[in-house]
Design goal:
The complex is a heterodimer of chains A (1131) and B (321).
Chain A lengths: L10 H16 L12 H7 L7 H12 L4 H6 L1 H24 L6 H11 L16 H30 L7 H18 L9 H15 L11 H8 L4 H24 L6 H18 L5 H25 L11 H23 L3 H7 L4 H12 L16 H6 L3 H12 L3 H20 L5 H26 L1 H12 L6 H9 L10 H4 L2 H9 L11 H11 L3 H5 L7 H26 L3 H29 L7 H29 L2 H36 L7 H36 L10 H6 L3 H8 L2 H35 L6 H29 L18 E7 L3 E2 L6 E11 L4 E13 L4 E4 L22 E10 L6 E13 L5 E11 L14 E5 L14 E5 L10 E3 L4 E7 L7 E7 L8 E9 L6 E2 L4 E5 L12 E6 L25 H4 L2 E2 L4
Helix pairs in contact in A: 1-5, 6-12, 6-13, 7-8, 7-11, 8-9, 8-11, 9-10, 12-13, 12-16, 13-14, 13-15, 14-16, 18-20, 18-21, 18-24, 19-20, 20-21, 27-28, 28-29, 28-31, 28-34, 29-30, 29-31, 29-33, 29-34, 30-31, 30-34, 30-35, 31-34, 34-35
Chain B lengths: L2 H11 L2 H19 L21 E5 L11 E7 L5 H11 L7 E5 L3 E8 L2 E6 L2 E5 L12 H14 L12 E5 L4 E4 L7 E5 L3 E2 L2 E4 L6 E5 L4 E7 L4 E8 L3 H9 L4 E5 L9 E16 L4 E12 L7 E7 L5
Parallel strand pairs in B: 1-16, 11-16
Antiparallel strand pairs in B: 2-14, 2-17, 3-4, 4-5, 5-6, 6-13, 7-8, 7-9, 9-12, 10-11, 12-13, 15-18, 16-17, 17-18
The chains are: A alpha+beta (1131), B alpha+beta (321).
């Protein structure tokens, strides 16, 4: 084949030139079937095109498969085909250009051109006859719908009480059955396996139940629970309707494929997107040019697939509908042949060769076909197989998977924001409708769930930036740094052409699990996912197999089972400790396990190496000895490094590392000393010593390791304490690893240390500690082998060999430690920047309760007494540096004062409590105060604050308040909520209130602007000191000055769309003063909410907490999920 | 002619003289009876302006030179005030609202109709229109201020308002997480605001509860628009007007009323020290009396408390005594 001249041309111009050249060629006067137009003639006709006769000749030869112009002249039929073809394409392109705007995306255009070019196929236009399927499908669904409804209704009726829904009438049951049947027949078109029908029915019924307007308010169960409850009850109904459902699935599936025949712009865009994502996922590192070529070939593949499908499908009539299995086989065959057809040529191209380095063309085409539902889908295959074991361990819990999923979703912030906006608008459209059908209600529900997921991802990435970044770093390792690809994969998990249960789509945990799979370390038997997986795994579907749930058999199976059990025990223990923040314990266990194993191996190797098979007799001594020594040192080293890393204590990290290196060197030295001792003993005793020489060698090695361990640890500590910390603390540019340590001016390793907590410390501390601890023993074993091997072969164990070995092992060990620590610092920053918003009195480490013996008192005289009791209980970790302070503030109408002493004159603060509490230990303290006439008509506000340092954590502070009313306390302090909605930001929320900003709450009224404005009510008796329309009608403001409420001077009601009071008016508690509005956000988008603020900015003297609002909101919370305060009543 | 002759003539016409005198008196009497009485104009009460906020201010007028004022200015009676709610469906249609409106009542603007759609809300009151939008579309490039001005004019023209912004300085505003702050140039701004005061006889018309202004983001989306209807008026009478010095003294004597203030979103400052930087005569549209009343406007910015708070006071300009 002629070499193609390297030119870039407009394809349309080229087609015109070919057409004209052929006409020229055929013209008896011009070409006379002997010549093509020359360069100047072409240049005149097609100026600026750079087309010459060589190019035309090249294209014609390729198009017609002729070797020369003589062949062309003799094959008039081919010539006319080309002429017709180019004319057709021009017409099509003209038509297409009229239809489509010029702003088509390049990729889509490229795909379209590919699909329309080459002349061999006519894109999706090969399935014309499939249009006849639609009426068949309609008829079938009409007939089968009634049967399905009739079957479902009695089951639904039975299920209602089980779901805690009583008094559900037959009408509602009938509605649910009808809507479920409708959705089932719609969704079943996307299934890839007949066994999925039960999944479709259960999922559809679940969604229908939870969204039914008469039920949703009564239903107390979560969607998952509903699904779990209904699914087992539906088997009978599904079995009875299985044939109808399969038929509906076949016809629906064919209809779906038939839509490709006349794709609208959206479908083309979706297909183009699927092609794009397939290429990016399979050839992420390929150059853009190569990716373009792969895309083009996939376009050709699609056309070829359709051609193959057409040739294989029988004529579809009411009496001749293929079974599900037959259809699948036809689709698979069409796919195989199309792939084979395209791949042969493609693999010869440069792009094909590039692709072949990482994957096969067949695989890529299969992935695309799978995503489009053209073959059995591979949807939901988790990303986890692509991740390394270490990353897999981190992502083995559902919580971490969910967070990683949110981290990936939020990688492309623009995409996230755009989708949020789009969803918000879609939700708004639904809400604008006065009435919604049940189908629309379900769509709205699904949208809201997805919106919530995206919103959570947005908040997660905004609030826990470094944590999100750490997850991305982990995942990036599996994608060659192409996080965009990983992110796209996550975004693409809303498949359009294949069935995905809404129960998964709507649940971030299940959804994340679908992305990341489930390692053996997580225990099974958990949730609806298990049911889904079992259904799918029975049919060899992807989720089950990906999660290791497929049965195994034989020796391999037994081994796998044993491995899984041990993995589960070990991993479960580790996860348990990780979950508790027990980094040290987890690190020590890991170190002990690895060190012990290494020591045991050495204990086994040395006797055999020295004594031959007889050495086995010493195993009962040597193996436990090796296990004990290696395990002990591994545990200490692992625990130390984990502790150092998790707390940012540099000397401890270096002591651990030093001990590891010392143990290695000491072990080698001890081994050699042991050899010398053993040799001496043999000589002195005349050979009597020989049977115990391994014990001498091993014992000496153990002693050497231990001594080295101690010395190394001391030296390491000194280096960390006296060199690293002082030197590196001044090198701030090195301390990018940890922001917290930057603030305190600590060292680079301290930075890394405080940066790495929990999981990272545990893993890397444990691994390095274990390896190091075992290294001393193991290296001696290696030395032993080398030495004895050398001796056996007549070569004396020379000093150089020993030195070389020792040096190598030590270097490798040290580098390993350094590498591990560095890698850990880079990856495992998961817990470092957590700033969990806590409910007052409740956090992950301890719980405070504060009670009074009476809730209220009559006015004195006579004087009365109130006893306050505070209980601090450590949760699953021990607490040190415990300090409890107590404050009593008495709020009166015109004044306030503090109570400092109890009735006996003893100070009420600090409260007596041990400074250390073990896990689950509690400390209780009580005192009594006298309520005299000074307390008349007041509120006694008692706040207890606890400061404590949980094990392996930095200091935590939490507080809790209780109140006692005396007489008639002032009504002029605010109480109740000003409006209804969800609290979306606490007083110290990071979005806008900030740690030093506003003592305010944001109460959101929905997700989109224009949502129903809610009435705003006065929460206090007071006077309006401002009622300002301000500039924006949706952002007006009212400020009420309480008549008298101590240090509370102003209450702001900001972002109003309506004001009902004017400046100077007196307002009463509960009076409607306006309606909520929607201020412009910094992105120009409006978010409806009320900003309810006490006093001016930066004045936090009067807390917006209980009792001035009904419930204290987590102060640093951001977003309704974190603030978890839903307000359904206002005064 | 001798004395006797003269005496004879006088004697002959003497009897006519009383008649002439009586007739003259009668004519004079009739004239005064028929001609209208000239009465002094009625007293005009100061408008009852409800200030947007209860604050106390002290004023610094250093640097403000004496501003000449006419001795008299007319007070205008607003007749048949335009009821925009009658035009609400038409206005709504022009802005692509096709939903059924909701009846609303504003504390200042009275009853009205409210339309909402996607990210926009249109409220039409009897004498005012308010509109709230958002950045729904984002073009690839930010528009120039001139382009935005043209878009604003186009938006207003669509509503039948031929407003120009020739003499209006745009205000550039940036939305931060905490507030809307005025910035110096469009590059730093999130949106731009144009004000367009209506005028009568070249005096601007002001009111306490609504400004005529329109804000657009840099992609041309109208974020906010508020406007009062143009009043149709007739002259009631002319009144002597306070001079600048007299108005200044009235301001110092706390006879001014706060008309506008722009406190930060989360701050309320109760006492202001206003450095006055502009003073002029304007007409205050008083809905209670349906009149346009001349007022002296004193505008400035707060000089204390670290917050720049623009505020505008009005002093009733009619000299009643």
């Amino acid at each position: 084949m002629a070499k193609k001249p390297a030119k870039t041309l407009d394809p349309r111009t080229l087609r015109e030139a070919i057409n004209w050249s052929l006409q020229y060629f055929l013209n008896p006067k011009l070409g006379n079937r002997t010549k093509l137009p020359n360069k100047s003639e072409l240049a005149t006709r097609f100026p600026d095109s750079q087309i010459d006769e060589k190019l035309i000749e090249f294209e014609l030869k390729n198009l017609l498969g002729v070797k020369n112009l003589q062949d062309l002249a003799e094959n008039e039929q081919k010539v006319s085909e080309v002429l017709n073809q180019t004319n057709d394409e021009d017409q099509k392109e003209n038509h297409a250009q009229e239809e489509h705007t010029a702003q088509h995306h390049d990729d889509l255009e490229s795909l379209n051109k590919t699909l329309r070019s080459r002349g061999k196929v006519s894109a999706f236009g090969v399935l014309a006859e499939l249009e006849t399927i639609e009426p068949l499908l309609q008829k079938h669904n009409q007939e089968s719908s009634q049967k399905l409804r009739d079957g479902l209704a009695p089951q639904i009726k039975k299920l209602m009480p089980i779901l805690g829904l009583n008094n559900i009438n037959d009408q509602v049951v009938s509605e649910i059955a009808q809507e479920t049947a409708r959705q089932v027949l719609e969704d079943v078109a996307k299934i890839q396996n007949p066994e999925e029908t039960i999944l479709v029915v259960a999922d559809s019924l679940t969604q229908t139940i939870v969204t039914h307007p008469d039920i949703s308010k009564q239903l107390k169960l979560e969607d998952q629970k509903v699904f779990e409850t209904v699914a087992p009850q539906l088997k009978e109904v599904v079995d009875a309707n299985q044939k109808d459902l399969e038929k509906a699935a076949v016809l629906g599936n064919l209809k779906q494929i038939a839509k490709f025949q006349k794709p609208d712009e959206n479908l083309l865009a979706t297909v183009s997107q699927n092609v794009q994502e397939t290429v990016e996922a399979n050839a992420p590192l390929a150059s853009p040019e190569v990716q373009e070529q792969i895309k083009a070939s996939l376009g050709t593949y699609l056309a070829s697939y359709n051609e193959q499908l057409r040739s294989k499908l029988p004529k579809i009539t009411a009496d001749s509908i293929p079974s599900f299995q037959q259809l699948q086989e036809i689709k698979e065959a069409a796919h195989s042949q199309a792939t084979a057809q395209i791949s042969t040529n493609f693999q010869k191209t440069q792009a094909g060769k590039t692709l072949a380095k990482t994957t096969s063309y067949t695989q890529v085409a299969s992935n695309l076909a799978s995503s489009l539902g053209l073959i059995k889908s591979k949807a939901n295959e988790p990303l986890i197989p692509k991740l390394s074991a270490g990353a897999g361990l981190v992502l083995s819990s559902q919580t971490r998977q969910t967070e990683a999923y949110h981290a990936l979703l939020s990688y492309d912030q623009d995409k996230l924001t755009t989708n949020l906006t789009k969803m918000s608008e879609e939700i708004k459209k639904f809400k604008d409708k006065k009435t919604l059908t049940h189908k629309e209600l379900k769509q709205l529900y699904s949208l809201q769930q997805k919106y919530q997921q995206l919103k959570t991802a947005q908040i997660f990435s905004a609030k826990k930036t470094r944590r999100a970044s750490a997850y991305r770093t982990i995942i990036a390792t599996a994608f060659g740094g192409r996080l965009d690809v990983a992110s796209n994969l996550v975004w693409a998990q809303y498949p359009q052409f294949i069935y995905q249960p809404e129960i998964i789509n709507n649940n971030p945990r299940l959804f994340a699990q679908a992305q990341f799979g489930k390692l053996g370390f997580s225990f099974a038997g958990f949730n609806p996912g298990a049911l889904i997986n079992s259904i799918r795994s029975q049919s060899h579907f992807s989720l089950g197999s990906a999660m290791g749930m497929n049965p195994t058999s034989g020796i391999k199976g037994a081994f796998a089972k044993a491995r899984n059990i041990s993995g589960a025990i070990f991993g479960g223990t580790m996860l348990y400790l990780l979950g508790l923040g027990q980094a040290v314990a987890a690190g020590a266990i890991t170190g002990a396990a690895i060190g012990g194993l290494s020591g045991a191996v050495t204990g086994a190797v040395v006797p055999v190496a020295m004594l031959g098979p007889a050495g086995v007799l010493l195993w009962p001594i040597t193996i436990p000895l090796g296990f004990f020594v290696g395990g002990t040192m591994g545990a200490v080293i692992g625990g130390a490094i984990a502790y150092g890393l998790s707390t940012g204590t540099v000397p401890v990290v270096t002591a651990g590392a030093g001990a590891a290196a010392g143990a290695t060197i000491g072990g080698i030295a001890g081994f050699n000393a042991g050899l010398a001792l053993a040799a001496g003993c043999v000589v002195i005793t005349g050979g009597l010593c020989t049977p115990v020489t391994p014990l001498i060698v091993l014992g000496s090695t153990a002693v050497g390791s231990f001594v080295g361990f101690i010395l190394g640890g001391v030296i390491g500590w000194a280096v960390g304490n006296f060199i690293i910390t002082p030197v590196f603390s001044s090198l701030s540019f090195l301390s990018s690893g940890g922001a917290s340590a930057l603030a305190t001016g600590s060292s680079v390793l301290a930075s890394a240390g405080s940066f790495i907590t929990g999981a990272g410390s545990t893993l890397w501390g444990g691994l390095t500690g274990g390896l190091s601890g075992g290294f001393g023993i193991l290296s001696s074993g290696l030395n032993s082998l080398i030495s004895i091997g050398s001796t056996a072969t007549g070569v004396f164990a020379s000093a150089p060999i020993l030195a070389l070995t020792a040096g190598t092992v030590t270097t490798v060990g040290t580098l390993g430690i350094v590498g591990a620590v560095t890698t850990g610092a880079a990856f495992f920053s998961l817990a470092a920047d957590e700033n969990p918003s806590v409910t007052p009195g409740q956090n992950e480490f301890f719980e405070i309760t504060k009670t009074s013996d009476v809730p209220s008192l009559d006015n004195p005289p006579p004087a009365k007494e109130v006893t306050f009791t505070i209980t601090l209980k450590a949760k699953s970790v021990s607490l040190t540096n415990v300090k409890i302070t107590d404050e009593i503030k008495v709020q009166k109408k015109d004044s306030s004062f503090n109570v400092l002493n109890d009735k006996d004159g003893q100070p009420i603060s600090p409260r007596p409590c041990p400074t250390e509490l073990t896990a689950n230990e509690a400390c209780t303290s009580s005192y009594t105060i006298t309520v005299d006439e000074n307390f008349k008509d007041s509120t006694i506000i008692n706040t207890a604050t606890v400061k404590a340092t949980p094990q392996n954590q930095t200091e935590k502070t939490d507080s809790v308040t209780t109140t006692v009313t005396v007489g008639t306390p002032p009504a002029d302090c605010p109480h109740g909520w000003p409006t209804i909605g969800d609290v979306t930001q606490g007083p110290e929320g990071p979005t806008s209130h900030g740690p030093d900003g506003y003592e305010a709450l944001d109460i959101g009224q929905g997700t989109s602007f224009g949502g129903e404005a809610k009435e705003v009510k006065a929460t206090v008796e007071g006077k309006v000191i401002e009622s300002d329309p301000r500039s924006d009608p949706q952002d007006q403001r009212i400020i009420v000055q309480p008549l008298t409420c101590a240090s509370l001077h102003m209450i702001f009601f900001t972002h109003l769309s309506r004001r009902d009071v004017q400046t100077g008016d007196t307002v009463h508690f509960g009076q409607t003063i306006g309606k909520t509005g929607a201020p412009l956000g910094s992105d120009g988008i409006r978010q409806p909410h009320l900003h309810y603020q006490f006093n001016n900015s930066f004045d936090r003297s009067f807390k917006i907490e209980s009792p001035y609002v009904p419930v204290s909101v987590p102060r640093a919370c951001n977003g309704d999920q974190e603030c978890h305060t839903h307000i359904s009543n206002s005064p | 002619m001798n004395l006797q002759k003269t005496s004879q003539i006088f004697t002959k016409v003497f009897w006519v003289l009383p008649f002439l005198l009586a007739a003259s008196l009668l004519i004079i009497l009739i004239f005064f009876q028929v001609s209208p009485k000239k009465t002094p104009p009625p007293k005009i009460a100061a408008p009852e302006i409800t200030p947007p906020a209860q604050i106390t201010s002290s004023f610094d007028l250093t640097g403000i030179e004496n501003i000449p004022s006419p001795p008299k200015l007319p007070v205008y009676q607003i007749f048949s005030p335009e009821d925009l709610t009658q035009q609400a469906p038409n206005i709504a249609e022009k802005l692509n609202f096709n939903q059924t409106p909701e009846n609303i009542t504003d504390i200042d603007l009275g009853p009205g109709l409210s339309y909402s759609k996607n990210n926009t809300v249109l409220n039409v009151y009897r004498q005012a229109i308010t509109y709230s939008g958002s950045s729904q579309t984002k073009e690839t490039a930010r528009l120039s201020v001139d382009d935005l001005k043209a878009r604003a004019q186009q938006f207003l023209a669509n509503l039948g308002q031929n407003t120009t912004f020739e003499n209006t300085d745009p205000i550039y505003i940036r939305i931060t997480e905490h507030d809307h702050i005025t910035v110096g140039n469009p590059q730093q701004a999130t949106y731009v605001k144009f004000s367009f005061n209506q005028k009568i006889e070249n005096y601007p018309i002001v009111s306490s509860n609504i400004k005529n202004e329109i804000s657009l983001d840099f992609f041309g989306n109208v974020l906010q628009f508020t406007q009062r209807s143009s009043p149709k008026t007739t002259v009631l009478d002319s009144y002597p007007v306070l001079s600048f010095d007299q108005a200044k003294n009235a301001l110092f004597a706390n006879k001014g009323v706060l008309l506008f203030i722009n406190q930060p979103s989360d701050i309320f400052v109760k006492k202001l020290l206003l450095k006055i930087n502009k003073a002029y005569i304007a007409y205050y549209q008083d809905d209670a009396s349906n009149t346009l009343l001349p007022v002296w406007i004193f505008g400035g910015e707060n000089q204390s408390d670290n917050y720049i708070i623009p505020a505008t006071y009005a002093v009733f300009a009619i000299k009643n005594d």
